[in-house]
Amino acid sequence: MGVPCSKFSLCCFNSNLKSSPHDLSDLENGGENGKNVLPSFTEFSLDVLMIATDGFAADNIVSEHGEKAPNVVYKGLLENGHWVAVKRFNRSAWPDSRQFLDEAKAVGNLRSERLANLLGCCCEGEQRLLVAEFMPNETLAKHLFHWDSQPMKWVMRLRVALYLAQAMEYCCNKGRAIYHDLNAYRILFDQDGNPRLSCFGLMKNSRDGKSYSTNLAFTPPEYMRTGRVTSESVVYSFGTMLLDLLSGKHIPPSHALDLIRVKNLTMLMDSCLEGDFSNDDGTELVRLATRCLQYEARERPNAKSLVNSLITIQKETEVPSHVLLGIRHGTATPPQPLVLTTTGEACLRRDLTALHEILQKTGYKDDEEIANELSFQMWTNQMQETLNSKQQGDAAFRAKDFITAIKCYTQFNDGGTMVSPTIYARRCLCYLMSDMAQEALGDAMQAQVISSEWSTAFYLQSVALFSLGMENDAQEALKEATKLEAKKNKN
């Protein structure tokens, strides 16, 4: 993915590997017993991968896709019964076939139980494909940000931090210290519930890719200056991962560091943990995150130092990861493709005209449950002004005069006498129509704050995120919207 790695990207072969954070297997250490756990790197034929993925069928896509996502990941089933993830680059990527093959072989020589390992590649004609282990239990982003039944346990968060640091240390020891765009979508869970680092980020960037494709607020400062990734840049990204684990949210480092400076750790910690963590452990993770996020790269710790610090705070090491994660043990069923509604299809296509028609048809009926319904407000002069702004905005919205609609809806919101998620949704679409995706995302998120289970707010977030090139986050928002819409229709 020229963008953050897919949810479900990579797979796991049965291996009976140890999972203790203190005792890594021979596979981790490259010992003799570990060499045969996974097959050696293989050059697959295109025909084999075509069969495995049903001709790269759309139903087998398990990662981001669309015109802004140049690379797509498919799930595939090999003849030997093993599920794999097949990453297919677009035609303009890796023009030099020899460079692609050499790079893939170098990454494919790595074999660690802390990695979702690269098993092979295909380099026929203009085709450039990578074949990796399939991780059946989704991504850290799913378990941390988009959980359904319970938040990730503190003990499991500590384990994720350690396993990720161990993966980084292993890669450093093997001369592959550079990792592109480390984020919560790059951490996947195997059949045992153990976190693994995707191997895809170890590949040098192709001609059409970027080293960092997520929000620039999360990129290392030296990358902003030079456009180059260093091993210290990876440690910086690890620090942002620690913030994710601490907060259960994707907090920009600058905001988190402000909270740390004023010792407002309560605001930083995930409230869903409800105090179910050791203050000492939390303080240690905050300390490590702060060190990783130092502006000067030379002041950040190395991977070995991180591993040594994290080992000391591990808890319940005898409890299997799948128990801590709350999942069934064993090979999970590969994820099913998302069945989208008409609105979801429009979002995926970024069909703004169709969304305009949907919002116009829906009107304000979704505002009915908001505490300050429009029809029950007191008719003051200020209220009349506010309602006039709304009416003028609606007229402009109908006429597709989006600039005027933005101005009128802004006056409505600034009036402060009423709160309407629909107004934010409509202004969001106006921003999208005006190529102002960042502003659109802000409005969609504000609509969600007002109405936390409103599918339209998540649908619009997905479109804004797609427009910003944040395909993984967009897919998550789209899934959440689909789930909320289905829940509402069921009721």
Automatic annotation (TrEMBL):
<dbReference type="InterPro" id="IPR000719">
    <property type="entry name" value="Prot_kinase_dom"/>
</dbReference>
<dbReference type="Pfam" id="PF07714">
    <property type="entry name" value="PK_Tyr_Ser-Thr"/>
</dbReference>
<dbReference type="InterPro" id="IPR011990">
    <property type="entry name" value="TPR-like_helical_dom_sf"/>
</dbReference>
<dbReference type="InterPro" id="IPR001245">
    <property type="entry name" value="Ser-Thr/Tyr_kinase_cat_dom"/>
</dbReference>
<dbReference type="InterPro" id="IPR011009">
    <property type="entry name" value="Kinase-like_dom_sf"/>
</dbReference>
<dbReference type="GO" id="GO:0004674">
    <property type="term" value="F:protein serine/threonine kinase activity"/>
</dbReference>
<dbReference type="Pfam" id="PF25575">
    <property type="entry name" value="TPR_BSK1_C"/>
</dbReference>
<keyword id="KW-0547">Nucleotide-binding</keyword>
<keyword id="KW-0418">Kinase</keyword>
<dbReference type="GO" id="GO:0005886">
    <property type="term" value="C:plasma membrane"/>
</dbReference>
<comment type="similarity">
    <text>Belongs to the protein kinase superfamily. Ser/Thr protein kinase family.</text>
</comment>
<dbReference type="InterPro" id="IPR058209">
    <property type="entry name" value="TPR_BSK1_C"/>
</dbReference>
<keyword id="KW-0067">ATP-binding</keyword>
<feature type="domain" description="Protein kinase">
    <location>
        <begin position="59"/>
        <end position="325"/>
    </location>
</feature>
<keyword id="KW-1070">Brassinosteroid signaling pathway</keyword>
<keyword id="KW-0808">Transferase</keyword>
<keyword id="KW-0519">Myristate</keyword>
<keyword id="KW-0449">Lipoprotein</keyword>
<dbReference type="InterPro" id="IPR045845">
    <property type="entry name" value="BSK"/>
</dbReference>
<protein>
    <recommendedName>
        <fullName>non-specific serine/threonine protein kinase</fullName>
        <ecNumber>2.7.11.1</ecNumber>
    </recommendedName>
</protein>
<keyword id="KW-0472">Membrane</keyword>
<keyword id="KW-0723">Serine/threonine-protein kinase</keyword>
<keyword id="KW-1003">Cell membrane</keyword>
<dbReference type="GO" id="GO:0005524">
    <property type="term" value="F:ATP binding"/>
</dbReference>
<dbReference type="GO" id="GO:0009742">
    <property type="term" value="P:brassinosteroid mediated signaling pathway"/>
</dbReference>
